[in-house]
Design a protein that fits this description.
The two termini are 37 Å apart. Helices cover 17% and strands 38% of the residues. The protein has 667 residues and is an alpha+beta fold.
């Protein structure tokens, strides 16, 4: 059995204006393939008889298609987004005949471009589409950006009913007898077909989230202190309920200092064991713990791993049942609690030896049919359907079909010494067939900085490796996943250490003979873009070309962008004081730059304002430095447009070849 659901609609080409200093050239075939967007989501109906796929169209659009697994019916498109005003992020099944999809929009709200979400429901045949997020009124005292989140697919009130959280916004009371007075986060039971809704948890002004047991019962609540500006303080308080009780009892408190959190963070409830799983940092490393919810508050360590943080639970199906844990060292590892799934995972590893990274994506209600994603460093991945009863494994679709004919490069875990002798882990990707010596090379720091790179497929690194560059991705100090000491004060406040590690990555490439020192470049996205630019401030001669995608360029300006979302104390803990902004902001050090700079940025970026790149370009031009800024109209931080990504890859490759004096790429 082989399932094919790709190319079910005529592809719609969307015209995307690109503002650059040079004419846009037709991207190379490789840039088109690597820049293509992957499948967005796959889910299976409760009865296991239908699949829903969210697939990209050409450009920035997407389509939701439904396919019956009993054969005889072609996959059917049920929802299409052009990607201009809205974007589809994923869908799941509220019943065997109805889907709920998450839509994301960016539009002007009170004169400012803001991102907001709404939940949509549609029948599996494409009919009866409705917004299930609570409707606001013109009398509301603000705009609710978050359209709610499904926290439980079992609403306990019949088919098509779910539990959603909802932020209640009060209304003006002048001249109204029935104005909404509730404010804060609550939970509602919502029928996705009739839109009937009833309160499950009242609105609480300090509530920050709720966790259910996967069977329609709210068992955990998290609160934060509030100020006149919204959430404030550096504390999360967790409360729990015993079974069949409405009383909230204290569970734990998590304190946050800068970017470091201490205390138990609740994550998932197991109703069978009557425990809540979560993470806690003990002795500087995060491990998985569980606490009994029977009133005894018994706390047990489930798993920890020396040297790294363990904080990822493996869940399965509509009830989000916890079945295992996962963590990353130089590669990702997992342990399955469930004996049957442990055998399934072992069998799948044998059946798919070239795709060792296996993720349980979804399952039918009875967990007899599983949707899997299997990937590796040289494979973007394929979705599979596994039937536990028949033991049959069927391919659904490749994650990124355009790369099917390309030979990808193996990713090798490496480590290199920093200036202070500390060993810094990272990943080295060499061009296919290369001897690994005297190559043009790229250091590619990750974004975040509260993130890390892992072993696996990376479309950006693989593109440049395909084009002949060695690529090193360092997990510099300031990365997550390696404990509190490694995380430090963050890659912004402690930028000297993070950027020092990034530059030591480049020096190691040269010292090992991997990189030609005259052909060493740096490429980064988001914080990685910041690191690429700030590296030139610290050592202007090291890199001969700089590519920064959606970069932070002024730490002080970023703090200003985030001031409405974080308290002053949290901002200081993450970014430091104004002396840090002065020394650590590349836009304030334009004099130092020697290498040419190329930047890309979407003009409605909600993470890092395009003003950051515009400021950097202006400062560099003012100092007579070579710089180019490419702006993409109507796109945000992710540049989620296959055509734009292809253009960006091609333009970056041409820029690097020119700056590093390399021959033109083969067509």
């Amino acid at each position: 059995m082989r399932l094919k659901f790709l190319n079910i609609l005529p592809l719609v080409a969307l015209a995307v204006p690109v503002h650059a200093q040079s004419p846009t050239l037709e991207p190379s075939a490789a840039a088109k393939a690597f820049g293509s967007r992957p499948i967005i989501d796959v889910s299976i109906s409760p009865d296991g008889k239908s699949l829903a796929l969210v697939e990209p169209l050409v450009g920035r659009g997407s389509v939701v298609s439904v396919a019956r697994l009993d054969g005889g019916v072609e996959p059917r498109p049920v929802l299409v987004s052009e990607g201009k005003e809205d974007r589809l992020f994923g869908c799941a099944w509220s019943s065997n005949a109805r889907l709920v999809c998450n839509a994301y929009m960016i539009s002007a709200i009170y004169g400012e471009k803001r991102g907001w979400t709404r939940m949509l429901a549609v029948n599996a045949d494409g009919s009866d589409m409705k917004a299930i997020s609570a409707k606001g009124s013109g009398d509301q005292l603000g705009f609710v950006l978050r359209g709610g989140r499904i926290i439980d697919w079992l609403g306990k009130a019949g088919e098509d009913t779910v539990l959603m959280d909802r932020y209640y916004m009060p209304e003006m009371t002048t001249g109204k007898m029935t104005a909404e007075q509730r404010e804060g986060l609550g939970v509602e039971r919502v029928n996705t077909r009739t839109l009937a809704r009833s309160s499950v948890e009242p609105a609480r002004g300090n509530a920050a989230g709720y966790i259910t047991d996967g069977h329609g019962n709210v068992r955990i609540m998290v609160t934060r202190p509030t100020t006149s500006m919204g959430y404030g303080g550096h504390r999360y308080d967790y409360f729990y309920r015993k079974k069949d009780s409405r009383e909230w009892l204290p569970l734990s408190t998590q304190s946050v200092s800068g970017v470091v959190a201490t205390g138990f963070e609740a994550d998932s409830v197991d109703p069978a064991l009557d425990v809540v799983y979560g993470s806690d940092a003990v002795n500087g490393r995060t491990g998985i713990y569980r606490i009994s919810l029977d009133g005894s508050m018994k706390k047990e360590l489930v798993f920890e791993q020396p040297g790294v943080d363990v904080d990822d639970l493996i869940r399965i199906g509509r009830h989000q049942r916890v079945v295992g844990i996962s963590w990353a060292t130089d590669r990702r590892h997992s342990i399955m609690f469930d004996p049957e799934l442990r055998k399934v995972a072992a069998a799948l590893t044998k059946a798919l030896p070239n795709a060792p990274l296996i993720t349980f994506v979804d399952s039918s209600e009875d967990e007899s049919r599983l949707v899997l994603l299997a990937t590796s460093d040289v494979d973007p991945g394929k979705y599979y359907l596994f039937d536990k009863q028949t033991k049959r494994l069927a391919e659904i679709a490749p994650m990124q079909a355009a790369l099917g004919n390309y030979s990808l490069s193996q990713v090798k875990p490496v480590s290199f010494p920093a200036a202070d002798g500390k060993q810094i882990p990272g990943y080295l990707t060499l061009p296919p067939g290369s001897n690994g010596k005297g190559l043009p090379a790229i250091v590619m720091p990750h974004g975040g900085p509260w993130a890390r790179d892992e072993w696996g497929f990376d479309w950006l690194a693989q593109f440049f490796a395909h084009q002949g560059y060695a690529v090193l991705q360092p997990n510099f100090r300031g990365s997550t996943g390696f404990g509190v000491e490694w995380l430090g004060s963050s890659g912004f406040k402690s930028w000297q250490q993070s950027i020092g590690d990034v530059n030591d990555a480049g020096r190691w490439l040269v010292g090992q003979g991997i990189a030609n020192p005259a052909q060493l470049a740096i490429v980064g996205w988001s914080y990685g873009g910041y690191a690429a630019l700030q590296s030139a401030v610290v050592d202007p001669q090291l890199y001969k070309a700089i590519v920064a995608i959606a970069p932070v360029t002024d730490i002080g300006d970023l703090q200003t962008e985030w001031k409405n979302d974080l308290s002053p104390a949290m901002l200081e803990g993450m970014f430091g004081d104004m002396s840090v902004a002065q020394a650590g902001s590349p836009a304030r050090q334009a004099d130092a730059f020697v290498a040419p700079v190329l930047m890309f940025h979407g003009d409605i970026d909600q993470n890092v304002s395009i003003a950051e790149s515009r400021l950097m370009a202006s400062r560099l031009r003012g100092k007579g430095k070579p710089v180019e800024l490419v702006e993409y109209k109507g796109l945000d931080h992710q540049l989620a447009d296959g055509q734009v990504r292809s253009q960006m890859l091609d333009r970056a490759d041409r820029f690097l070849r020119d700056a590093l004096h390399l021959p033109a790429a083969k067509p």
